[in-house]
Amino acid sequence: MQRYILLRVFHTIIALLAVSIIIFLLVRLSGDPVSTLLPAEATLEDIERVRIQWGLDRPLPEQYFAYMGNVLQGNFGESLKWRGQSASDLLLQRLPATLELAGLALLVASLAGLPIGVISAVKKNTPTDFIAKTLALLGQSMPSFWLGTMLIWLFSVQLGWLPSYGRGGIANVIMPAVALGLFQVAAVARITRSSMLDVLDSEYITLARIKGLPEWKVIWKHALRNAAVAPLTYFGVIIGGWISGSVVIETVFAWPGVGLLSIEAIRSRDIPVVQTIVLFFSLVYCVSSLLVDILYAYLDPRIRYDS
Amino acid sequence: MTTFPTDVIAAEKTGWRWPRILRRYPWFALSVLFLVLVLPAIFADLLRAVLPFVHDPETGKLSQRLLPPAWIGPQELNGIQLTPGGSWEFILGTDKVGRDVLSRIIYGARISLLVSGISILIAGTIGTTLGVLAGYLGGWWDHLIMRLVDISHAIPTIILAMVLSIALGSGFLSVVIVISLIYWNSYARLVRAQVLALRSKDFVARAQMSGVSTFKIMLRHILPNVTNTIVVIATLEVGQVILLEATMSFLGIGLPRPTPAWGLMVADGRDLIVEAWWVALFPGLAILLTVLSMNLFGDWLRDRLDPKLRNL
Amino acid sequence: MQADKPETASDVILEVNDLRSYVFTANATVKAVDGVSFQVKRGETLGIVGESGSGKSMTSLSLMGLLPRPSGRVVSGEILLNGRDLVGKSQDEMCQIRGREISMILQDPQTSLNPVYTIGNQLMEALQIAGVPAAERKERAIDLLRRFNIAAPEQRMDDYPHQMSGGMKQRVVGAIAIACGPQLVIADEPTTALDVTIQLQYLKLLKDLQKQTGMAIIFITHDFGVVARMCDRVAVMYAGRIVEQGSVRQIFNNPSHPYTEALLASVPKLEEPTDRLYSIEGQPPLLSNLPAGCRFAPRCQYARPICTGQYPPSFTVEETHVADCWRHDPSWTQH
Beta strands of C42-183 (E only): which ranges? Predict the structure, then answer.
């Protein structure tokens, strides 16, 4: 088990390093940030001066190592758009909002997705199953920004029950959380269902029934424990989906989180902020994948003892 | 002694079946797909020439701005007309610059089809090539390519799209490149798995022993046998590709205005949601229907061609 | 098919009368068990022999109430366990009976145990159903493992299934089966998936347990060697029906149905030199499309027109020995 974890951690670090290089290169290649940010009247000398000031005249590898050196000391650079604020500060400022949204979305997705998956597997081929499968398919085919917009139309414009944008109390967070989580409910339910179907065919489930266990115990203790591994491994992908999703949902609902920050930064070509956010998101994604892999190993003893 | 009526049980115990029409769902899905995506895409100009309610998607008269869908009448209060009613010339209403929504949806279909088609072609080519190389040649080819796949997994989709869009700017070509760079890895991974299985088969051994060059083996023996997998992956991914393009356009990092891209239309509609709900609803519906029917079709195709891909 | 000799009611644990279980699929109705009758007495071992698809496993599933849902159903007949009819009982009611009164050992030890729980956990769960109080469960579980000749049972309790060999797993499955002290245990080919060397040990174990507890065993197998070793009585199944039934001695010495003859003939004997292994020509009929007459007729060397025309009734060959074959009809020579 230890070896397995170490190997995965090693891979994760390599991946993150590669990501940082790629981001660095791409962003640098996208054109000269200085000329876009300085006023039009700026002379060539002004531009040159600023470039030297920001170290943009050095060769690329040197810039990269300087950047990484700073990063490892916790210095992620200063925002080009929001003068005076460091990129990391901006990120940290907006982080709580995104965490709040993502946390609630996670709750929605798992509280709804897992049971729906289990029930539709148990009641296979009944109308219940059909409805569940259709909803799941719809959920995966629907653009989340459109769902968010339509939710706003229904609950804010037509019914007036909920505010349509911004962060505030519970009323503000319901729609974005549902929009973000709902998308994944479909995926979770689908995976859970197919996993449960596989498990329910197993011999050990028959044995559990032979023992005389009540049906609910057969399903929820024996079957689900085996079936839950599949959606769990998918959770890593789901976290990735949330990161992507939060960008979209925060834009739709004007939710002041990291996702919205990233869009604003990209539009203004605020390189330090973009780099920081991308590194942060990649880190979150990689770490959560790692944690899921470890959890998977813990839940399935066969992996734990064999690796 | 208990006996149960067999015929009643027979009817009851076969389980609930899908209603007849849905059982033929691949055809149903295909026809919806055709209606929403392919026909308009191909015949957009023809439709515009022939039908009076299809217009130029990129121009609009301000006098016709924000007209509601045709079936909605004018809103009045105390005899004063607040908002005009719709007209059958603009069936689904108009947007804030006076452009007809239906026409933009029809022309938008062409955009979606082109973008997704080309992206998948490129992604599929890159991915399959790398997959075949990794699977057949093994060794450090395999290692390198698999590391690339891992790394590409490490960046969440939208983030990568955002960053690539900075590097490449906006525009049709950039969007295609962005999408291709994001979706190549499924092909690589799954084709590689398939190739690994094929590599040990007899016909490959025979070819090797007859001295056929490695390249020829990959091209003429391995490649044809992975076509099934490629096709299934492609159809399963079209839906996601269309969604990604729409999302990118919505966020402003995809196709530029005034292209009639569906995602852009929903973005506009979001700003207008209070007074003109139709501008956001219908393009979104088009996206939904297209992706839904592609998913249904892809599922059915996968079950027919290569059920092992169940967990894609 | 009924035996003629009258039995004392308290001897008979299980009485199955004309059991029919069908599987209803979209295209056809599969008559997996189509009129099966037999009895099992306390302490007795009944062997059910037949090839794959003959209905052996479906019979045992019918007894347990575990036919594949929702398409499988017992359609008619009686299953009298200690006089109570199990047919028509709800799943909840069957839940109470399973494990406690009637239990089963499955065929494949690799897949019968839940891979994510320790065998101790799974064993103690069975004891919980038996009503053993929590404090005693671990002791009793270790004791059960010991009875099944599992070495170092205390350590084994914390093992996961994949850490054990096939033979050991099958013993755990056996331990779980008898944990609640059922009166009837159905063993569905329990040794088929085991190494030959381990098979004998396992069979001996079961036999010893039976002597100790007085439980009845229904032993499903396709191996006549096992039948000879384990069983008191044998029922031969073909295409959903029992075609011959009798004591082991009677069946071996006087096989009265062509199918039984053929089965016995296809077991290679060490003492006789053979050039080719005898196998029965042809295939069993589709259970969804059964002929009107004797189902073995197409493959039978003795077949006559009446065989394909009408299903033979049960003829008594000897006391406690019956066979469903027209050859035993007094007017056979005229058919």
Answer: 45-49, 72-81, 84-85, 102-105
**Shortest distance, CA B199 to any CA of chain A (angstroms):** 27
Nearest by CB to residue A203, choosing from C64, C111, C126, is C111
Tens of pLDDT, residues C45-55: 999 998 877 88
Element (H, E) at A176: helix A170-200
Domains of chain A by residue range: 2-72, 88-299
Q: Which residues of B touch A197 (CB under 8 A)?
A: none
**Total count of residues recorded for chain A:** 307
Q: What is the pLDDT of residues C175-205, one digit of tens each?
A: 998 888 889 999 998 888 888 888 888 888 8
Residue C54: φ, ψ to 5°:
-80, -15
Sequence-separated (6 or more) residues with CB below 8 Å from residue A238 = A109, A184, A187, A188
Q: What span, in angstroms and rounded, lies between the C-alpha atoms of B164 and B175?
A: 9
Q: How far is A220 from chain C (nearest CA, A)?
A: 13
- Is the Cβ pair B157, A240 closer than 8 Å? yes
Q: Is A159 on the interface with B (CB under 8 A)?
A: no
Which residues in chain A are contacts of B183 at CB distance < 8 A? none
Residue A65's CB: how many other CB atoms inside 10 A?
A: 11
C154-165: buried (b, 16+ CB within 10 Å) or exposed (e) per residue? eebbebbbebbe
The pTM score is: 0.71
For the A88-299 domain, the top CATH level (class) is mainly alpha
Say yes or no for a CB contact (<8 Å) between C176 and A206: no
Q: Return the residue matching tokens 């079957």.
A: A223
Domains of chain B, each with CATH number or no CATH = 101-305 (1.10.3720.10)
Is the minimum CB–CB distance between A243 and chain B shorter than 8 Å? yes
Q: Is the pLDDT of residue A163 over 90?
A: no
A182 CA: distance to closest CA in chain B (Å): 15
- The type of residue at C78 is E
